[in-house]
Amino acid sequence: MVRRGRHLIGGAVIAAAVLLLGACGVTNTQQARSGTDDGGPFYTADDEITLYVPFAAGDTSDRFSRLFAEHFTAELEGNPSIVIQNVPGGAQKEGMNAYERSEHNGLNMAMSSGGLISSSHFDPEGIQFDLAGYQPVVAFGGGMILYGPGDTGPLDQLATSDRPVFYGGMELNASEAVRVFALEQLGLPRFEPLMGYDGGGAITTAVMRGELTLGNSTSSHYAQNVVPLAEQGEITPHMVQGYVRDGEVVRDPAFPDLPTMPEAYAMLTGQEPSGTGWEAYTAITATQTNLLRTYWMHGDAPEAARTAAADAAAAVAADPAFLEEAATLLAADPEPLVGAELEASVGQIQDLSPETVQWVEDYLDSRR
């Protein structure tokens, strides 16, 4: 059952959509934790966890979070209820700020995108939280694919064309900057990035009109909306941003025949990618794709709560029923990460060297 309301948090009015999962019915208030102190489960069926989602109700990430919450509470020892608190706005910063202000008692969790993880390092304005102080519980990946009009031909033909190459994106932030950098390195003729498009749908439309030579979208958007156009020959897929495994960029499992951007660079230039720019590409790709939807708990929440949450999340990530439902929702496999693999992906961005951070900041300044 879903109840909608409006709440005032930190002086800002936010839209709230409440989903209660468990055996206790629906409520808008957070009850005191009633877990035992005698070695029993931290959570009980009388407890209520609030999951902060920095997207509007009905958004894909909101719908995914509700699906995750349903399976998570079933796996979580004690089977507490879960309330979804939607806090959209401020490029997701409002939601994470609200989460930071919540009690660090194990009864609050948050979801963030990979883009927010990157921007928290390079665009700190308005941020009141520090992800380094949070514990990642589980992450679900999602790839990025770059494509052009059907008449552009294969990638090597695009690179040797005498036509200018216009690439479209939404905003030149850290996540977009590494894609722009990689495309620059390919040596595409008269390459020019054009920012300001309002989402994957607008970018696809611009590609179809011939306004853009290259566009990008998530694997989910591409599978749901662009694949039919590609099958009709109206769109040509060129490359993927890739996933990061063991510190290396690898192909997207959803599109195993498409090269990664580093592979495309090697193919077109005959050189292996190296240097600070490509190091930044790898680190930010780890957040953009590996950590597309990441779920967090306060790092100073009770250890028993953090352990119980991690165990339950690992069970969800291995549950075939959940993975099948998630793949149906996203039109792509969710690519879960837990444990050491999750920590490694988070570490890619948190452990960036000062030189790499400075490189990204300088590159963004040079492009603005």
UniProtKB/TrEMBL annotation:
<comment type="similarity">
    <text>Belongs to the UPF0065 (bug) family.</text>
</comment>
<protein>
    <recommendedName>
        <fullName>Tripartite tricarboxylate transporter family receptor</fullName>
    </recommendedName>
</protein>
<dbReference type="InterPro" id="IPR042100">
    <property type="entry name" value="Bug_dom1"/>
</dbReference>
<dbReference type="InterPro" id="IPR005064">
    <property type="entry name" value="BUG"/>
</dbReference>
